[in-house]
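cache lookup: miss for this entity combination. No prior model stored, computing from scratch. Input as submitted by user K.M.:
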Amino acid sequence: MPELPEIETVVGDLNKKILGLTIQDIWYDWKKQFKLPKDPREFKKIVVGRKIIGVRRRAKNILIDLSGGCLLLIHQKMTGHLLVGKWKIDKNKPVSLLKGPLREKVNDYIHLIFYLSGGKELALSDLRKFAKVMAGPRETMENLPDLAELGPEPLDRYFDISIFRNIIKEERRPIKQVLMDQNVIAGIGNIYSDEILWEAEIFPLKKADKLSAAQLGRIFRAMKTILKKAIRLRGTSTSDFRDPAGREGRYTFVRKVYRREGKPCSRCQTAIKRVKIGGRSGHYCPVCQKN
DNA sequence: ACAATATCCTGCGAGC
DNA sequence: TGCTCGCAGGATATTG
């Protein structure tokens, strides 16, 4: 569920909280989260002793640059959370030593902790255990399909309407599906594809190659404004997104369609509808989004 | 060559 | 009240 704005929020916070610290040890209780190397002991060997130089985002991936030319990649998938705090392991389960939001449920699903210099800890909480972590030499990592095959970043300055048009016009799938395809455009998921298409007044099942120039222009502009606004509001927490301090995002309160089935459209008061698109649910206004 | 479907997971809410 | 079941969905693997 964390998409571009949520990951951007996490990355910004991590840059303020853990820059310059060294990974001293790790704790984990779920082996399958390690995708590369698959052996947790090998993973540990790579990251321990390295300093955190910078934190970046690419699509929905969190990229942590480590000293010695290494890169740590974390993908939160749907229910992953990166938290900065302090925990004690009690009966093989982490318990937060800090008061506040970290004491809440998100604290119950921690399966990985990085122990950092200065007594800080970076934890990965993940209820559904879909999140993945990878580490290795930067060049090896950047050549993995996970990164190498991604489409352009929607908020990059060079990413203009002509590039957007050229990418989209080749696609015959429904526009919502195209917007969510990371190898077409990076970082957009179910929440923001719904929100962007409502803003642009486009029917989510409309085939991408059938969109007019005016419609493409509206989608392009909506994509930029919605994503920027969502970053400003620190993401959406309709289900369980939390920032590294355990706090919710405020885009939840200004969203127009996502998970608002049956509720009135803020433009025309018509009840928001829900449809299955490529196995996922899309939300739209049947009056505002006719084509 | 492309598209639809299954897979991984767990909690939650609907319905009986 | 307590059970079952479908749903949530990012990305990859597999089948059609």
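stored under new cache key. The mean pLDDT of chain A is 93.
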